[in-house]
Amino acid sequence: MKSRCPICGREALLPDDVMPGEVIEHDCGVTLEVVIDGGRVLLKPLEIGEDWGE
Amino acid sequence: MNIALVYDIARWEERAILEAARKRSIRVELLHLETQPLTVSGRPPVEADVYLQRCLSHANALSSTIALESTGVRVVNNSRAIVVAHDKLWTLALLSKAGIPTPRTVIAFSESSAMKAAGALGYPVVVKPINGSWGRLVSLAEDEETLRVILEHRVYMNNPFLKVHLIQEFVRKPGRDIRVFVVGDEVPVAIYRVSDHWVTNTARGGRAQPAPIDEELRELSLKTAETLGVEIAGLDVFEDPERGYLVNEVNAVPDFRNTVAVTGYDLPGRIVEYLASTTRR
Questions:
Q1: Which CATH superfamily is domain B172-272 in?
Q2: Which residues, in sequence order, are CB contacts of A38 under 8 Å at separation 6+?
Q3: Residue contact B32–A49, C-beta within 8 A
Q4: pTM to 2 decimals?
């Protein structure tokens, strides 16, 4: 499966069974989050939450 | 047999759990909180024998667990275990009461009482919020002046919980601490987190190495998990030169990518097998 990096505009390869919310490390160095919207698979930059983590 | 994976962000860990379940022919229902609202009581959102809580956000983990439990489903870890483990003070209080060795800790509600507490513990001291994560806002105060600066910064932060100061003795660790995993009544794997820096979290640059689990560490870990009511957990344990093992923190939604990488142990598989075994009872 393919989508597009919103930062560099280049193609991003995703697993066929990609999960909503999945973290993707793109070749351009940006960490992206998968958003599945009405069957469309989009990517957005991952924003780290204040209360994340163990 | 099927498992619901409750999550907000799917990292390496969540993908590994999904793959481990598939290998064992266990069906996984994804419950992604950004796309799925949860009702309070009523019908569970998906059909599953057990729900595995894997939210990265503490607020999401606790709130979704409470909502799911209200529908009558079993969530691992449960809401009480999550809230207790997230609160460092509550964790230390329960562990101490159960006779589990922990670092000497004082809480203070003002700058002056914090200074008094630190003086009594003896410098250096570690100052941390009662509910932080990934080592954020954990500070080392070498002396009175450093502590004063740290506390002054906290005064200007809006979160009232940051004004409850958890002050601990600085344990003279041997350049590492131990991350021990508990899954049910087993202690399957542990790593050292090695660092030249006094903060050894791998999220803060600590290097993971396989660590042995002796009988004392095994028993201590199981007792800790039992005391807090956690079924799947990552425990942070210090080695004190005089007192031996000290349990410092417990994580109810632990990271384990580095553990799997350096030990080769199939921890996601063990988690999945544990969940399957509990539903067969």
A1: ATP-grasp fold, B domain (3.30.470.20)
A2: none
A3: no
A4: 0.95
